[in-house]
Structure formats: structure tokens, C-alpha cells
């Protein structure tokens, strides 16, 4: 799988703003006010067939072709298995991204900050290295999937150009006072022990006329996510929230900062759980709970475990009765075991296998197992889990190093977060100005 390289700088910019200004509120305001007074039952004077129209454009003289779109779509399809009915929406999202990239590259060149081919090639080679390849191998892999090296290099060039534009035209003019930082630190200290939720979201805007179609589209997205599709990839391509650029990640937020509909759903979720689509003002929401923590407190999911996995397998063509008898024997043997030192003896008696791991974090375990592990005392085992095909096993807790309480954010870290928040908001305005000033001819 080809790895997208999204700038750490740009990803970090959104973190604070996502926590304080959820996009659902923005969508609610926009739909509720309807400042242009456009009726819901719009009748177009000229109909267009999206399956026939060629989505190309000339942006200030630079051409975006259908090939550009299809090659970028191939990159997406390497990470996400899109159903046919979502292909057109993905193409249009990619089309808009390509227009923005073109504007970013042009703006950097106009301000005499062009990105050199050598800089792009260096970033490209680094991505190849992280994927266990050299540049030539990356070239071949991209062509094999229907994309091209030029498509990925274009994206990298735009990212570098945008970083330079923000560094010159936005970041130097963002100021944060010491008093502001102290106020934030005081609020965080007052909130110590309260829960924060790290949420991922996919928001799809809808009007009363389009509600049914949008809900069905959201349902199909959830179906793909439940089959194992990458949430962040789908969020980038389909979410209409500002969090889309960050893979839908809102960062850690307090539930009271969210719209009531989102807060009530998130409150009942466990880490790793996906919920949706559900209706909120302005559209439909899909939520994924990435993590949950208490402010300023140690996160128990960061505990380091010493585990022994004891597992049994089943002969081919085992009947249900035979498998049930084997599982009952296994469960009885585990129940009679006297701690971790007895594991090998018991395993030998029932023809089981023992595997030891002394450095696993709770958060690295499958989500359904984490609550059970956290409730165990040393020497206790989880209930048996698994299947006839994959084998049945238990995890035996032999030791746990609990994490230390977090020392809390530093003055410099909080100042940096506030600065990043303000840069992110101004960056959105900056890109909007580039779009407004552009001459774009659609074909």
C-alpha cells in the first residue's frame, strides 16, 4: 500500500481548532440561516449528466486533466475499497483538491518561493523508504495501481509550497500573550480528572430534499468502514467538515463543547467503537471513538503488560460437539491453574501452546479485550475467546506496570497549540482568498 505523506505541520495546525469549534455547529449555522434564501425545490435550467461530463479545468492557465483525477483516484483506491456509487463523489472531491494544490503551487511561485524538483524528489524518496522501497520501486508500484509518480509528486510539491506560504505570510503575524496561556493552564488544572474524548468524524451535509440520499450514502460509508476500510482515508475524501484535512480527527474534546446530538452519542461509546449515521442539524454524522482519557490523569490503556497467551487448535473437520468438549476441557484447565508459573505445565497436559509477551501496552490489544484485561489481577486469565477456525485462547496476566500520572502541558506547549490553532484558521481564510481571486475555466 502506498503511504500518503501528509505534512506533520499542517496536521498539527488543526488540533486546537477542532477541539474548540466543531464543524457541526458551522454546518448548523449555515443551513439554518440560509442567507441567500434559496428554495429547497431548485429546478436547474440546464441539466448535466455527471457520468458524461469531463471534470477538467484550467486554473490561472494551469490545466487539470481527467488523467490527473483518475491517477489520484487510483491512489485513494489503494487504501479504500469504494463502492461504485461513491466513485463520482470521490472524483469531485479529488478535483477540488487538485484545484487547491494548483493554487498553492502558483502562489508560492508568484512570491518567488518555488519548490525545486530536488526537494520534491527528496520527499518522494523518504516515502519510498518508509514503504521499504527505493524510488524506482515506488515508481513501479504507483504505475501498477494505475497512478503515476507525477501524481504523488504534485501533491508533495503543493504541501511544501503551502508550508512556505504559511511560514511567510501567516505564522509571523500570529501572536499569543503570556496571559492567554496562563488562563488556559488555569482552566486545564480546574478540569483535572474530567473526561476527554478523542473522536473521529465524517460529516455529510444534507437539506430536507437531499436527506434520504445523503443518509443512504452515509450508510454505505459505514458499511465499508465496518469491513475494515481506513476511517481517515474516508474522512479525507467524503467528510464535509473542516476536520476532513486531518482524517476526521477532532483531537481530544470535552463533550460539553460538542453539539448535544454528538455528545449524547459519544458519551455511550467505548474506544474503537463506530456509530452512525445519525442526524444532527445540517446533515448526518458518523463518529469513531479513537481514545478516551481523564485530563491530567494517567491513562490506564498505557499500562505495560506481561502476558502469557495459552491457545488450543482443533483438528480439521472437527464437529461442533468435539469442539465444545475441547473448549470445556480447556476452560476447566485454565480455571484450575495456579498463576503464571503453572501455565506451561497445564498447557502440556491439554496439548496447548504458550506464547509470552513482556512489553505490550493495553491499547495495543484488540478493543473488545481491553476492558477485560484492565479488570484482571496478576495471575488471572481472560475468558476464552476465538473460533474453531482460528483456535481458542486466553490471555494470562503475569504483570502490569501502570503508567505514571501525566505532568500536564507546559507553558510552551500550550502557547504552541494556541498559535497552531490561529494559524490553521488564518490558513483557511488564506486558501479561500486564493480561490476567490483565481480565474478557473471548467470544461
Automatic annotation (TrEMBL):
<dbReference type="InterPro" id="IPR046357">
    <property type="entry name" value="PPIase_dom_sf"/>
</dbReference>
<keyword id="KW-0732">Signal</keyword>
<dbReference type="InterPro" id="IPR027304">
    <property type="entry name" value="Trigger_fact/SurA_dom_sf"/>
</dbReference>
<feature type="domain" description="PpiC">
    <location>
        <begin position="194"/>
        <end position="291"/>
    </location>
</feature>
<keyword id="KW-0697">Rotamase</keyword>
<dbReference type="Pfam" id="PF00639">
    <property type="entry name" value="Rotamase"/>
</dbReference>
<keyword id="KW-0574">Periplasm</keyword>
<keyword id="KW-0413">Isomerase</keyword>
<dbReference type="InterPro" id="IPR050280">
    <property type="entry name" value="OMP_Chaperone_SurA"/>
</dbReference>
<protein>
    <recommendedName>
        <fullName>Parvulin-like PPIase</fullName>
    </recommendedName>
</protein>
<keyword id="KW-0143">Chaperone</keyword>
<dbReference type="GO" id="GO:0003755">
    <property type="term" value="F:peptidyl-prolyl cis-trans isomerase activity"/>
</dbReference>
<feature type="signal peptide">
    <location>
        <begin position="1"/>
        <end position="32"/>
    </location>
</feature>
<dbReference type="InterPro" id="IPR000297">
    <property type="entry name" value="PPIase_PpiC"/>
</dbReference>
<dbReference type="InterPro" id="IPR015391">
    <property type="entry name" value="SurA_N"/>
</dbReference>
<dbReference type="Pfam" id="PF09312">
    <property type="entry name" value="SurA_N"/>
</dbReference>
Amino acid at each position: 500500500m502506498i503511504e500518503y505523506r501528509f505534512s506533520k505541520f499542517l496536521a498539527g495546525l488543526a488540533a486546537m481548532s477542532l477541539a474548540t469549534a466543531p464543524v457541526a455547529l458551522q454546518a448548523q449555522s449555515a443551513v439554518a440561516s440560509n442567507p441567500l434564501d434559496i428554495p429547497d425545490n431548485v429546478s436547474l435550467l440546464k441539466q448535466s449528466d455527471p457520468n458524461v461530463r469531463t471534470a477538467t479545468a484550467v486554473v490561472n492557465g494551469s490545466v487539470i486533466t481527467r488523467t490527473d483525477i483518475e491517477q489520484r483516484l487510483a491512489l485513494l483506491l489503494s487504501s479504500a475499497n469504494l463502492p461504485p456509487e461513491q466513485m463520482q463523489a470521490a472524483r469531485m472531491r479529488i478535483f477540488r483538491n487538485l484545484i487547491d494544490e494548483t493554487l498553492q503551487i502558483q502562489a508560492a511561485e508568484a512570491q518567488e518561493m518555488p519548490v525545486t524538483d530536488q526537494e520534491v524528489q527528496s520527499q518522494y524518496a523518504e516515502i519510498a523508504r518508509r514503504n521499504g522501497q527505493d524510488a524506482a520501486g515506488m515508481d513501479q508500484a504507483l504505475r501498477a495501481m494505475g497512478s503515476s509518480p507525477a501524481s504523488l509528486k504534485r501533491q508533495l510539491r503543493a504541501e511544501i509550497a503551502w508550508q512556505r506560504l504559511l511560514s511567510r505570510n501567516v505564522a509571523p503575524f500570529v501572536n499569543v500573550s503570556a496571559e492567554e496561556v496562563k488562563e488556559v493552564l488555569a482552566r486545564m488544572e480546574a478540569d483535572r480528572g474530567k473526561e476527554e474524548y478523542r473522536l473521529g468524524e465524517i460529516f455529510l451535509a444534507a437539506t430536507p430534499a437531499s436527506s434520504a440520499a445523503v443518509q443512504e450514502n452515509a450508510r454505505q460509508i459505514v458499511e465499508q468502514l465496518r469491513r475494515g476500510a481506513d476511517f481517515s482515508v474516508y474522512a479525507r475524501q467524503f467528510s464535509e467538515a473542516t476536520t476532513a484535512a486531518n482524517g476526521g480527527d477532532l483531537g481530544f474534546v470535552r463533550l460539553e463543547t460538542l453539539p448535544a446530538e454528538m455528545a449524547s452519542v459519544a458519551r455511550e461509546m467505548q474506544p474503537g467503537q463506530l456509530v452512525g449515521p445519525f442526524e444532527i442539524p445540517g446533515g448526518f454524522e458518523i463518529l469513531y471513538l479513537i481514545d478516551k482519557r481523564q485530563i491530567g490523569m494517567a491513562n490506564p490503556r498505557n499500562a505495560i503488560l506481561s502476558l502469557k497467551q495459552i491457545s488450543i487448535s482443533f483438528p480439521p473437520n472437527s464437529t461442533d460437539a468435539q469442539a465444545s468438549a475441547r473448549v470445556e476441557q480447556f476452560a476447566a484447565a485454565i480455571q484450575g491453574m495456579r498463576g503464571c508459573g503453572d501455565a506451561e505445565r497445564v498447557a502440556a497436559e491439554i496439548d496447548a501452546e504458550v506464547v509470552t509477551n513482556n512489553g505490550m501496552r493495553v491499547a495495543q490489544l484488540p478493543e473488545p479485550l481491553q476492558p477485560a484485561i484492565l479488570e484482571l489481577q496478576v495471575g488471572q486469565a481472560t475468558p476464552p475467546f476465538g473460533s474453531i477456525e482460528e483456535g481458542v485462547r486466553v490471555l494470562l496476566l503475569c504483570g502490569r506496570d501502570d503508567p505514571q500520572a501525566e505532568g500536564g502541558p507546559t507553558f510552551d506547549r500550550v502557547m504552541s497549540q494556541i498559535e497552531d490553532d490561529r494559524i490553521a484558521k488564518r490558513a483557511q481564510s488564506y486558501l479561500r482568498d486564493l480561490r476567490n481571486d483565481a480565474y478557473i475555466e471548467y470544461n
